[in-house]
């Protein structure tokens, strides 16, 4: 369901830390665009700039220079509250460590983003259950994380990320804590959400087998995008 609409654009993004001789470049002149409905994998060695880019896309950080446009909005001109609103209303996050609340049910975990949006209780439960059903977990909605497998916990985390119907889903090493079989299940789920629901997905991964599920791979090296690493992928 990819469209021609550009939803994310980096224009000569630079991100530095430190001053003087201690100054380091996490990103050094990075430019790329992502269209609505794409499934993008971001790869690179530790320190290559991929995590910094994801933090910036997720409105958790701002560039030192350059422009970041999200759905046409110039993000670096937003204040902290405006960035929080953008994150809450347009982005979903999935992490390697699941980040579920251990003493609450799967349903209650999925409800959390809706609480921040002040959605009424009855509507929250309906939306949360629909999200769990979308990831194949409607039957275990009242189970706590301890009663679920690692793959099921990650599905709950994905349900929590999509319950607000975000424009973009950011997945940071979503299969990093899973075995190969569960990893494939999660990647098939992400692919299905991308193709059938039209959610734009941006995923950081160090696993080339997982990256192959994406429509396109962006490789980072030493703060730059390195097109020489494409290795024949799309």
**Largest beta sheet: what is the strand line-up?**
6-7-8-3-9-10
Q: So how many helices?
A: 7
The parts where pLDDT drops under 50 for at least 5 residues are none
User: Mean pLDDT, nearest integer?
Assistant: 90
CATH homologous superfamily descriptor: P-loop containing nucleotide triphosphate hydrolases
Distance between the termini: 17 Å
Number of domains: 1
The number of distinct β-strands equals: 10
- The CATH topology, please? Rossmann fold
Strand content: 25-35%
Q: What class, by secondary structure content?
A: alpha/beta
Indicate the percent of residues in helices. 25-40%
Query: H/E order of the elements?
Result: EEEHEEHEHHHEHEHEE
> Main sheet?
6 strands, mixed
Q: So what's the overall shape? A: globular
CATH class: Alpha Beta
Radius of gyration: 18 Å
CATH architecture: 3-Layer(aba) Sandwich
Concise description?
It comes from Arcobacter ellisii. The chain is α/β, with parallel strands linked by helices and 234 residues long. It has one domain: P-loop containing nucleotide triphosphate hydrolases (Rossmann fold, 3-Layer(aba) Sandwich), CATH 3.40.50.300.
């Amino acid at each position: 369901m990819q469209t021609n609409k550009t939803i994310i654009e980096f224009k000569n993004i630079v991100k530095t830390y430190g001053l003087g001789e201690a100054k380091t470049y996490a990103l050094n002149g990075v430019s790329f665009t992502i269209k609505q409905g794409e499934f993008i994998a971001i790869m690179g060695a530790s320190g290559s700039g991929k995590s910094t880019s994801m933090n910036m896309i997720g409105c958790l950080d701002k560039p030192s220079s350059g422009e970041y446009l999200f759905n046409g909005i110039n993000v670096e001109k937003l204040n902290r509250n405006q960035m929080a609103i953008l994150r809450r209303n347009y982005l979903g996050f999935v992490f390697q460590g699941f980040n579920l609340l251990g003493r609450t049910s799967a349903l209650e975990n999925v409800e959390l983003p809706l609480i921040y949006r002040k959605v009424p209780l009855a509507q929250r439960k309906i939306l949360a259950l629909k999200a769990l059903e979308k990831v194949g977990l409607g039957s275990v909605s009242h189970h706590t994380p301890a009663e679920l497998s690692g793959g099921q916990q990650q599905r709950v985390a994905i349900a929590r990320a999509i319950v607000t119907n975000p424009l973009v889903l950011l997945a940071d090493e979503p299969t990093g804590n899973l075995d190969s079989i569960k990893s494939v299940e999660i990647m098939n789920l992400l692919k299905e959400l991308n193709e059938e629901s039209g959610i734009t997905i941006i995923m950081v991964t160090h696993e080339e087998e997982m990256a192959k599920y994406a429509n396109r791979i962006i490789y980072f090296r030493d703060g730059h995008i390195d097109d020489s690493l494409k290795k024949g992928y799309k």
